[in-house]
Each structure stands twice: as structure tokens, then as C-alpha cells.
């Protein structure tokens, strides 16, 4: 009886294995272009490109627009800066160049690797619009980038995307509007989400490209950023052939 039972079990397993071995691989049935888009998304998930999710995700449309109004002390700093004839950021804070703390040793590859390692340590941190800039338990997009540079290198950058972009515009020795020029550790800035297609952005003139989102470039077409609650807080996404590529406005280094 034991032999009969074992024979039946082995036959069932063989049938199952043969059946699985003949299942078509969905990736191989796709075109090369489709593979290039879908395979990288499976490194995380496809939430940032899922229209059923993104179309109803208010935080993607808003970004961190308006966050600066949460910080009233800027008015005092603005008056002080004006009296000293300092250059001001759009929010009224004085423009002050930040540099890595010399007591922090650069990792192999330079300070950029300090930034990348710190950024990745926050993967999955929840998204909160207007998050507390003194508490790393939640982030919006600009709080995330600021906290990464502050934690990794003691570089205190402005507190929202628009003002971090102004900082890069004013002080970066390497800035660009072509995403292909991005290098590891750069800050990347994006306009508001309007859809998943290139056609949703091509007709916009510069005045319509308000910067409302940002992240840190990892290289190989990847960005680490915090976009919204629905997309999962701090995450890694591929940018090319997706709305992040179409939304790109400015990039630059704050380490050069």
C-alpha cells in the first residue's frame, strides 16, 4: 500500500512540475521596449505608474507646494537678511552656501556615497505633507532630501522643493535641464503631476512648470524620493519613459 501511495504522489509531483515548466514567461512575450519599462518596476512595484492610483492621488498633484507657509519665522530672517543686503531665497530666507562637515569622513567614492547610503536607510518612511522638519519619522519630498543631506553631511539645505531648486540655481557649479546629465547624488526637481503620458506635459510653458517635487538621483535612471502616502513614502523608482521624466525641470549637485 505504501508503494502505491508513494507512486501516486510522485506521479502528481511530476505532472505539476511538467505543467509549470510549460507555463509561458510573460516577460519573454513582451517587446523589448515593454521589457525595459516593466522589468525595472518589478524591483519595487508599479504604483507610481498605475493610472488607477495616480489619477486619484491628490498628494502627487500638489507635491510640497505651499509647505513654506508652515514656517512663519522666515519673516524675521527675511528682514534681517534685507538689512544686510544678502541674497534671499524665494521664501525670504538668506541664501547661505552649505558644505559637508569636515569632521565627517567621506565613504569610498566620496561624500555622494554618504548621501546615498543615508537616503536608502529611510526606505519605506511614511509620507506626510508638511512633515516636521526636525523629526525623521515621516517626510514629504523636500523634507526627505533636506534630512538626508543634514543627517549624512550636516549640510542644512532650504526646507522645500522650490527653495532647494533656487539654492541649486544660485550656487551649484553643475546644473542642467537635461535629465541625461544627472549624476549620482544630484538633486532633481519636477513640476506638478498632470498625467502619465509625455503629451500631458509637452504643451506647458516655463511659467506653468512650478517646482513641487524633488528627489535624489541614484544613477542608472533611478531616483529615491518621497511622493505620497498612496505610493508608499520613501521609495526607489525608474524615471525614464515615465511621468517623472516628462515632469523634470532642473537638476544639479550641491557637492560640487
UniProtKB/TrEMBL annotation:
It comes from the Bacteria. GO terms for molecular function: hydrolase activity. Keywords: Hydrolase, Protease, Thiol protease. Signal peptide: none annotated. Residues 109-256 form the NlpC/P60 domain. Pfam families: NLPC_P60. Belongs to the peptidase C40 family. This is Cell wall-associated NlpC family hydrolase. It comes from Paenibacillus aceris.
Amino acid at each position: 500500500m505504501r508503494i502505491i501511495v508513494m507512486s501516486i504522489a510522485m506521479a502528481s509531483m511530476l505532472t505539476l512540475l511538467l505543467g509549470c515548466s510549460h507555463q509561458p514567461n510573460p516577460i519573454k512575450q513582451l517587446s523589448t521596449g515593454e521589457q525595459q519599462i516593466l522589468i525595472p518596476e518589478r524591483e519595487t512595484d508599479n504604483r507610481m505608474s498605475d493610472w488607477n492610483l495616480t489619477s486619484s492621488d491628490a498628494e502627487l498633484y500638489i507635491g510640497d507646494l505651499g509647505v513654506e507657509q508652515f514656517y512663519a519665522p522666515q519673516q524675521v530672517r527675511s528682514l534681517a537678511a534685507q538689512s544686510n543686503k544678502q541674497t534671499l531665497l524665494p521664501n525670504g530666507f538668506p541664501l547661505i552656501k552649505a558644505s559637508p562637515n569636515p569632521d565627517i569622513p567621506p565613504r569610498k567614492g566620496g561624500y555622494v556615497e554618504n548621501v546615498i547610503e543615508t537616503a536608502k536607510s529611510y526606505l519605506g518612511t511614511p509620507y506626510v505633507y508638511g512633515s516636521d522638519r526636525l523629526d525623521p519619522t515621516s517626510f514629504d519630498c523636500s523634507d526627505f532630501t533636506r534630512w538626508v543631506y543634514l543627517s549624512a553631511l550636516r549640510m542644512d539645505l532650504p526646507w522645500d522643493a522650490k527653495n532647494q531648486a533656487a539654492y541649486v540655481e544660485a550656487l551649484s557649479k553643475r546644473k542642467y535641464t537635461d535629465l541625461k546629465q544627472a549624476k549620482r547624488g544630484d538633486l532633481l526637481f519636477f513640476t506638478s503631476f498632470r498625467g502619465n503620458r509625455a503629451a500631458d506635459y509637452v504643451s506647458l510653458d516655463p511659467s506653468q512648470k512650478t517646482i513641487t517635487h524633488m528627489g535624489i538621483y541614484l544613477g542608472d535612471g533611478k531616483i529615491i524620493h518621497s511622493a505620497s502616502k498612496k505610493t508608499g513614502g520613501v521609495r526607489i523608482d525608474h524615471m525614464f519613459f515615465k511621468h517623472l521624466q516628462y515632469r523634470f525641470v532642473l537638476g544639479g549637485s550641491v557637492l560640487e
